[in-house]
Amino acid sequence: MRRGDTLYNIATKTQRPGVSLDQMLVSLYRSNPQAFMDNNMNRLKSGVVLAVPSAESANSASPNEARQVIQAQSADFGAYRQRLAGAVPAAKTEGATRQAGGKVQAEVQDRKAAAAPKAARAKPVRKPVRPKPAGAPPLIYCLLPSS
């Protein structure tokens, strides 16, 4: 048996022909009492070696009896889980320890433009428009940094 294995998984893998799954679960439980904590089939110990019962042994409990045992074990396990949940202390929910502050503005400020030094900003340089002679290539404008 490996960590994470459940009695259900083991019973499914070892189920004998002519034996219901409930009968196999109860038979594994009854054949290996040392493998369970607090005598509950839902609390299988990790690392234990289980003896797999024969079909005759598994059929010793009727399907109805096996179902009743499983229901009783499930109810007991539910009560165990409730006890565990009740033992956990409640988390403190006192007033908030963090606070946020600030103000909301309607206009957006471009922080990059505001942070850039004025000398590094480029301004478009406009030159007077001269009439273009016929057949001349188009004019190309470029932006030069202001001095």
Overall mean pLDDT stands at 80
- Which structural class is indicated by helix and strand composition? mainly alpha
Order of helices and strands: HHHHHEE
Unreliable segments of 5+ consecutive residues: none
Shape: elongated
* Residue share in β-strands: under 5%
Biggest sheet strand line-up: 1-2
Q: How many H/I helices? A: 5
Kindly state the percentage of residues in helix.
Answer: 25-40%
By DSSP, the count of extended strands is 2
CA radius of gyration is: 40 Å
From the N-terminal CA to the C-terminal CA, the straight-line distance is: 82 Å
**Largest sheet report:** 2 strands, antiparallel
Describe this structure in words.
The structure is a single chain. Helix 1 (7-14) packs across helix 2 (21-31) and helix 2 (21-31) crosses helix 4. This protein has 5 helices and 2 strands; from the N terminus they run αααααββ. The protein is mainly α. The longest helix is centred in the middle third of the chain and has 25 residues, at 63-87.
Features:
2 strands; 147 residues; two-stranded antiparallel ribbon; mainly alpha
Q: What's this model, at a glance?
A:
The chain is mostly helical and 147 residues long. 36% of the residues lie in helices and 3% in strands. A two-stranded antiparallel sheet has the order 1-2.
SSE layout and pairing:
Blueprint: H1 7-14, H2 21-31, H3 55-58, H4 63-87, H5 111-115, E1 122-123, E2 144-145
Antiparallel strand pairs: 1-2
